[in-house]
Design brief:
Bound molecules: zinc ion
Strand content: under 5%
CATH superfamily of one domain: Ribosomal protein S18
Order of helices and strands: HHHH
CATH topology of one domain: 30s Ribosomal Protein S18
Largest sheet: none
CATH architecture of one domain: Irregular
Shape: elongated
Structural class: mainly alpha
Number of helices: 4
Length: 84
């Protein structure tokens, strides 16, 4: 089965995911670094912070999040990397 040569250029459809900043949605005034449960959700399994383009956070909250995660790491609430 030959594939027709006149292949139209594939239009990459970027399906738009509905991006909602969950901190804005919850109306969190500021992100607490002691709120490990929430921070865990926004970091990968290996302890990396999920980028804004994936998590859908707004700029302001993502900035607060990075600071919160770094702070939490410093006082050993969160891992820098996954151990073992
Ligand atoms: Zn936000």
């Amino acid at each position: 089965m030959a594939i027709p040569v006149t292949k139209k250029k594939k239009k990459k459809r970027r399906f738009q995911r509905v991006k909602i900043c969950r901190f804005c949605a919850d109306q969190v005034p500021f992100i607490d670094y002691k709120d490990v449960k929430r921070l865990r959700n926004l970091t990968s399994e290996r302890g990396k912070i999920i980028p804004r383009r994936i998590s859908g956070n707004c700029r302001r909250h993502q900035l607060q999040l990075t600071i919160a995660v770094k702070r939490a790491r410093n006082i050993a609430l969160m891992p820098f990397t996954l151990e073992h």
